[in-house]
Amino acid sequence: MMRSLWTAASGMVGQQFTIDTIANNLANVNTGGFKKSRVDFQDLLYQTLRFAGTPVTAGAEIPTGLQVGHGVRPVATVKIFTQGTFRETDNPLDLVIEGDGFFQILMPDGTVAYTRDGAFKKDSEGRLVTSDGFALEPEIVIPPEAMEVSVASDGTVSVINPGSNEPQTVGQLELARFVNPAGLRNYGRNLFLATAASGQPIVGQPGLDGFGSLAQGFLEISNVQVVEEMVNLILAQRAYDANSKAIQASDDMLNTANNLRR
To answer: Residue 34 burial (CB < 10 Å; 0-12/13-18/19+)?
Structure first.
């Protein structure tokens, strides 16, 4: 069987994976805190038909070898953690991180997840939670009588209570960052989980020690660039078409070989 059939098939599978990734990027173009992904490829095994440097005669050797590859495979989806676009909302519970860091979210099983989505809400107990009801870590509780909520750039959360003009501090937000954020695992729900590849979280105060500062009344939208994704989509589609043409050409060649004797 001709190698080109399976080689081109691996190319089609790889380009399909690229299109799947692009489709996910485009589907989340308006998702808060979403980070786009890119597919990395790796060539497969090579069959060596003649080794370079093989002696031919005395004083002569083959200058270049003869190898044929067997296709390609996707080896990684790299998460790109560039800053997303900011959108003003005027909602006092909407927060954005200007720079490095993740909000910490306490999951129901006691583990901590991480997110760049700062669209927080209050639950029935006044806690700041995500849209799924998972509490911010460390816990921030807004008193029910609070008239105004203020979040400083360093993460200090304060409120104005009735009959008072002095802000009262009710909590301190902390951020986490990682040596290798690309090693975080996507959990869904705008959350990431730490892995051995990401390293242990480094927790600190916003605005200090390399952590980004906070801004209130803004949200970070995804960092997906629609035009860039459309160009990548065209390239992937053309590559898919080219590989299908290679399969068709190989099939035509086999058909020609089969019809040599009638």
So the answer is: buried
Q: In the block, which residue shows the tokens 């990548």?
A: 232
CB within 8 A of 209, min separation 6: which ones? none
HSE at residue 117, side-chain half, CA atoms within 13 A, is 23
Tokens representing 210? Answer: 């390399």
> 219: burial class by Cβ within 10 Å (0-12, 13-18, 19+)?
buried
- List pLDDT tens digits, range 7-57: 999 999 999 999 999 999 999 999 999 999 999 999 999 999 989 988 888
State how far Cα 157 lies from the chain centre: 30
Q: Nearest Cα to 11, choosing from 36, 49, 43?
A: 43
Q: Read off the pLDDT of residues 145-163 as tens digits, 9 standing for 90 and up.
A: 999 999 999 999 999 988 8
Report the pLDDT value the prediction gives residue 183, as an integer from 0 to 100.
93
Mean pLDDT along residues 242-260: 92
Q: Distance between CA atoms of 213 and 118, rounded to whole angstroms?
A: 13
- Average pLDDT of the chain is 94
Which pLDDT score, from 0 to 100, does residue 55 have?
87
Contacts of 222 (CB under 8 A, 6+ apart): 25, 28, 29, 30, 31, 32, 33, 34, 35, 36, 84, 85
Q: What is residue 56's predicted lDDT score, i.e. its pLDDT?
A: 86
User: Which residues have C-beta within 8 Å of that of residue 180, sequence separation ≥ 6?
Assistant: 197, 198, 199
**What is the Cα–Cα distance from 185 to 144, expressed in whole angstroms?**
36
Task: Supply 246's token pair.
Answer: 């290679």
End-to-end CA distance of the chain: 21
